[in-house]
Every structure is written in structure tokens, then in C-alpha cells.
Amino acid sequence: MDLLSAAYGATSDDDDDGAEATPTPGWAATGYASAAGPPPKRPRWEPPPYLPPPPPYPIPQPARPRAAPPPASTASGRYVSKRERALMAASSSPVDSSSPLPPSAAAQFGSPVVGSISDSNLRADIFHSLRCQTKPGSTRRMPLKLSVSLTGHTKAVNCVDWSQSHAHLLASAGMDHTIHVFNVWNKGNTTARVFKFHTAAVKDVRWSLNGLSLLSGGFDCSLRLVDVEEGKEIKVFKEDQAVEVIKFNPSNSNLFLSGGSKGSLRLWDIRSGLVTKEYQRNLGTILDIEFSSDGKQFICSTDTSRSNVSENSIIIWDTLRQVPLSNQVYTEAYTCPCVRYHPFEASFVAQSNGNYIAIFSAKSPFKLNKYMRYEGHGVWGFPIKCNFSFSGKELTSGSSDGCIYFYDYKSSRLLSKIQAFKEPCTDVAYHPVIPNVIASCSWAGEIAVFE
């Protein structure tokens, strides 16, 4: 009891600075009881109402003023709790928004401009070939020698596309959410741009017919137009489906067609950013689309899992009237991941998951040629694409065995094949100026250019 009385009689360090200490009465020190009894007990300490801790950086909106906690080394010697010390430490060192990011974050949010897109540092022979503008079909030499290997993608590359106006640039779209632009024959850094505007896998990328801009679509349900020279995003077109494929209208560079996972086909106008036409037929996933040379018709191939197998696998559409001209073109029980018009003749081909390429007439009634097909390569469910050379004399296809196969268009005879990758070769693209140069990409993220 004496100890408790002494403790309650002592002066607390939480008292106001101006208050004087009360002397300890003699009855408490001697231990004898007094008639007056012990002094009245101090009122119970009540904690102050809880206030949320201040943020570590200033907020522009007005806040209710309150006194800042005193520092730990105050003259009064008051005890400072851990919470108060932490708050004082945070308030004394606010976060600086201009401080440099860690290396990983800086790389993630850094500028997409990582190299040059100029043709001033190209190989001499390539520079000369680009300036001479070799006529398509002037040579029948096969591109059998590896010219350049391009790296940068960490996952599968879905497609590659050469620039028509700047033929030394190659764009690629990958499952790693990125788009790469390569200055293919640059003597220094071959990677010119790396765009990370998409938040999911990028399925297709196409150079605009108006110059140095790229249009891409991906699994984040968006189409994005990018200025390659400035490295900036120009416009975003929102979709309600994952975008599988995009193609520009060859007769109007301001219009492009998109197809996606819900089977919707939409014709967009870049200038307004709006859909001008929509082609509805309750289709499965759109696998590929291809415009005719005049832009009046287009072909689409679809996944027939949600429709009749004998119909809708390949559909020819009238672009202006939005009606199908034929939907019973290909009646085999296979999907076609790629369709291509011949550059000059009235025919088109379709890459079939039956491990061959079928050929059709491009005139109504769009009949299948049952007596000729291009076979020898493998598809086996991979999105393997094929392409005509610019002369139209060769048809080239990727393959599930990693090879590139070259066929004679007229006879369907296999001319040659080269082992490009160990993983499936997913796309091949002929150079727009140099006829014996072809770019290819693989399921492992590799890109190779042959000449």
C-alpha cells in the first residue's frame, strides 16, 4: 500500500510542462496513517481519439490541422511511442516522385526508343538493293542462307511484317505482350523499338499504308495505333473480344478490318476511331482475314467449333453490302489458320489443319481445286501461316517441324525446304523490295531472316 501511494503521489512525466511537482506528504514517507487520509486519486488517463496516420507525402486537398508530434529528444523528456517515431520518420522523409526508379522498373516503364530506324548504317549490299528497287520476279533464287538472327522476344512470336515504305524495318508481335521493330541490317543495334502498350499477348501487327505507324491487336481486347518514329501511342480502339487478326483495306488506307474471339468482324475508320460496318453471322473465333486486291471482297476463316463444320469454315464477304457471297467454300472437317489471295491470279489458298494447303477459285462459286494441293509440311494445330512471293511464282509456308517449305505455285511441287528453327515456324513474310529475302518467326520467340 505504501508503494502504491508513493507511485500515485509521484509526478508523471506526461503532466503539462508548466505544472509544478507536488511534494510527497510526510505520512507516505514515514508509513504512518493520517486522519486526513491519502490524497485523492488522479483521474484515469483517457487515450486521445484515433486519427489515421498522415500519408508519407503531401496531399493537395485541405486537411484538418493538428499539432505535429514532438520529437523524441524534447526538453521535457516525454516518452515517444513507436507509432509516433514511425510517423515522424515518415513525415521527415517524404517520397520524391522524381527519384530514379529501380533498374527493373526503369526498364519496364522506359522509353520504347532503344535504337535507330534510319537506313544510314546498313550493310552496303542491302543499301544498294533497297535503292535499286529490284523488280519482283527478276530472280528465282531461293533464300537459303541465314542473313540475320533477331532476338528480344521471350515467348512465341505470332507474326512478322515488313514495312512497305521503309523496307529495312521489320515488325513482330509476341505472346510476351510486346511489339518489336527491328532495323534488320543495321551494323549496330538491330532492335529499334520495343512497345509495351498491350497488357496481354499481341496476336497481330501490321504496318499502316500511310507511313511509319503500326496497328496491333491482342488478347487485352484492344487495337492500338503507334507512331514508330516518336515511339508514342496515337489512338486506342476498344473491342469486346480478344483481337485475333487485323488487315488494312488496300483501296483505303484509313480503313482496317478486325476479327476476334467472339466471331465479330468489324470495319474501323482510323480518322474517327469508330466502327463503320459490322459483319455478323454467329461465327466461332476468327482465325484469319484477307482482302482482295481491290478491297471489294474479303475472306475470313473461322473456328467451326460453334457452327456447322460443313459451313462457315471459310466465308467470302462483300465488303460494302456486308453480306456473305459464299459460306460453303471448304467443307472438310478442318479449320484453316491462314488464307491468302494470289497477288495476280483469280485464286486464293487456305492453310488447313489437315497438314496441306488447299487452293480455290476467287470467282463465284469459289470452287475448291480437288486435284491439286500443297503438302509435305505440318500444321498439327499450330497457327502456321503461308505467303506468296511478290512475283506469285512461289508459295512459302512455315511448318510444325521448324522448317520453311517452298512450293511452285503452278505445279504444287516442293522446290526446297530449309531448317529454320527447332520449334514450329509460325509465319513467313517475303521482303517487299528484295525478292530473295524472307523473314520467319518461331514458337520459341526467335526471328530469322534468310537471303
Structure description:
- This protein is mainly beta and 451 residues long.
- It contains 5 helices and 28 strands.
- It has helices spanning 2-9, 26-30, 82-92, 103-109, 124-132; strands at residues 146-150, 157-162, 169-174, 179-183, 191-195, 202-207, 213-218, 222-227, 232-238, 243-249, 252-260, 265-269, 274-279, 286-291, 297-302, 314-318, 323-326, 338-341, 347-352, 356-361, 368-375, 386-388, 394-397, 403-408, 414-419, 425-430, 438-442, 447-450.
- Strands 1-28-27-26 form a 4-stranded antiparallel β-sheet, with no helix packed on it. Strands 2-3-4-5 form a 4-stranded antiparallel β-sheet, with no helix packed on it. Strands 6-7-8-9 form a 4-stranded antiparallel β-sheet, with no helix packed on it.
- It is globular.
- It starts with a helix and ends with a strand.
- Residues 7-36, 56-60, 67-76 and 91-109 have low confidence and may be disordered.
- WD repeats lie at residues 150-184, 195-236, 236-278.
- Keywords: WD repeat.
- This is Os02g0319800 protein.
